[in-house]
Amino acid sequence: MMKPVTPAQAGVQIGVPLDSGLRRNDEAVFVMFHKIVPRFTLSVATLRRDPAAPGRALALTLGILLFWQLGRIGEFQPGRLLEPGNLRVMGNFLQGFYPPATDRDFLSLLARATLETLAIATAGIALALLLALPLSLLISQALSLSRLLPGPRRPGGILLRQVLRGLTMVLRGIPELVWALALVRVFGLGPAAGVLALALTYGGMLAKVYAEILESGDRRAARAIVASGGGRLAALGYGLLPGVAQELVSYTVYRWECALRAAVVMGFVGAGGLGQLMDQAMKMLNGGEAAAILLAFLLLVLAADGFSALLRRGLETVDRRRPAALGPLAWGLLLGLALAVAASFRFLELGLSALASVDTLTQVLRFAADFFPVDFSSEWRHKVFQGSLQTIAISALGTLLAMALGLLLALPSSRLWRGVTRLVLNTLRSVPELVWATLMVLAAGLGPFAGTLALALHTTGVLGRLFAEALENTPRQPRDALAVTGSRSFLAFLYGTLPGVLPQLAAYSLYRWEMNIRMAAILGFVGAGGLGQLLYVELSLFHYAQASTVIGAMLLLSLMVDGASAALRRRL
Q1: How far is 361 from 367, CA to CA, in rounded Å?
Q2: So where does this one cross the membrane (predicted)?
């Protein structure tokens, strides 16, 4: 029998420096060594019971109870997937996916719908920029004179910034699909509602992020320009923008990718593009047409991802210390954007003058007035509260399932299986949640369970990719140290890799939960429960006062989840 060794001696014997992941006096780590490494017999006197065990047990118990309660609210019933009726309907529909529709008339419609989706996304982002640029400059403190120069703060400026921040919060807090559903009532079926819906939601998002990027930049040059008598526009153009231009352009390109996916989803409420064609194919259970539409969308998304990645890599090669190097790139991007926007509006047969005409504004204001006064009756408040609970359950369950599935798909280490899992993850995230929800309604029936499955499938693709990248960037020393002592690969991962990367995985999951709460609120448009189903029914019945209450609940729910998620991320 080997004599007892100290923790420090054990660390030296396995060849791991004490400052490379195994901390001195880290008793929990050496308890693990005592259990999984037969050739070490650590002195019991040096090890005490893990003081964190009761807390972990309590957290696990509370987690199980919370999952059970969420499952009850969200009608989580996996057995419904195996019911004969659902299996028959889903099987017949999927059987029709092959071969995809290839007749000439349909392919002509598909090509036009694809171009329409691309044009809606581009035109929507262009209008969002027109809205976001002035808003971001007004709400940002980067150009505030009281921040750039010593002196008292101006109450008027502070009040204006707070009011405009509230406006951007409302714009981005209401999902673009809700805006589209409402604007279809004003502009009728077609791309106009989709373009304006993207402009409103993404305008709020871009304004918020642009303001944060400007505030995070180096303000010394801007301060010097203002102090020497220059104006704030000069401080912006010559002091702030050269240092943050890459981040601004990179985020705008990323948002254009997101707008492309959103443009597909908005077609489900009649806003044109591939989504409208997909909605018709789904309602007619035409699997061949649905398969062709999905393939077209996947190719469009992959092309957009490749283009944006290429553009971002080009931006990264520009030397930040040479602002003049940004000049040709900036002018080239502006020229390309102008041409793309002009072509998009021409293809969609939309004119800015028509969208901003007095008649259009009058129609919008008259329609908005129908939403007031808001219905706050006790019976309706109870229904909205139940819908809110269902929405929370759908988003939380979908995110939790995606965390587990995404982690499993992120683990394969062999080159072959890594390629297979990457293909699966890319396919899952490329299909919009609303399309998954439509398929899951066929597989599991109407209700929130279909929404949970839809969110889980799409989010698995998103989190799986992020988890894989995080695991690949994690230092290998702790895991290798456990592996060379004979530990099984699962235990080496559990105790050597996971503790170091867990905060990052949790942060990714919390951020995705913020996104999922907005999406869960609109999955009901295709019968997947929650607030979306309430809103769709009330708008279809022209009950605008009741719909206004639901939209308010969506906004409040989104803000609450954003705040809770941000607080949890700060603790991580």
Answers
A1: 10
A2: 118-139, 177-200, 258-278, 290-311, 323-345, 392-413, 434-457, 490-510, 517-536, 542-561
- The residue type found at 92 is N
Within 13 Å, how many C-alpha atoms sit on residue 98's CB side?
2
b vs e for 298-331, b when ≥16 Cβ sit within 10 Å of the residue's Cβ?
Answer: eebbeebeeebeebeeebeebeeeeeeebeebee
* Rounded distance between C-alpha atoms, residue 323 and residue 244, angstroms: 10
Which residue from 320, 188, 209 is spatially nearest to 254, judged by alpha carbons? Answer: 209
Whole-number Å distance between alpha carbons of 237 and 214: 12
Alpha-helix residue ranges (DSSP H) falling in 370-521: 378-410, 415-430, 433-444, 448-472, 477-484, 489-492, 498-520
Distance CA 229, CA 351 (A): 41
According to DSSP, the residues that pair with 5 across neighbouring strands are: 42
User: Looking up tokens 């003058």, which residue turns up?
Assistant: 353
What are the structural domains of the chain?
1-51 (no CATH), 107-369 (1.10.3720.10), 378-571 (1.10.3720.10)
Task: Express each pLDDT in 155-204 by its tens digit.
Answer: 666 788 888 888 888 888 888 888 888 888 888 888 888 999 999 999 99
Q: CA dihedral defined by 304, 309, 312, 313, rounded to 10 degrees?
A: -150
The whole-angstrom distance between residue 468's C-alpha and the CA centroid of its chain comes to 17
pLDDT-derived band at 314, boundaries 50, 70, 90: low
Under 8 Å CB-to-CB from 349, ≥6 apart: which residues?
A: none
Nearest to 381 by CA among 198, 191, 164, 545: 545
The 10 Å Cβ neighbour count of residue 251 is 17
What's the pLDDT score for residue 318?
55
DSSP state of 446: S
Assign 353 to helix, strand or coil: helix
Q: Helices then strands (H, E): number in the chain?
A: 26, 0
393 to 43, 77, 386, 451, 516: CA distances (angstroms): 48, 13, 11, 10, 11
- For the record, the structure tokens of 147 come out as 């921040």
Residue by residue, DSSP assigns 138-202 as: HH-STT-HHHHSSSPPPHHHHHHHHHHHHHHHHHHHS-HHHHHHHHHHHH-SSHHHHHHHHHHHH
C-alpha dist (Å) from residue 229 to 149, 221, 226: 11, 13, 5
Which residue type sits at 143?
L
Tokens representing 225 are 């320009």
CB atoms within 10 A of CB 445: 18
**Entry pTM:** 0.78
> For all residues of the chain together, what is the average pLDDT?
79
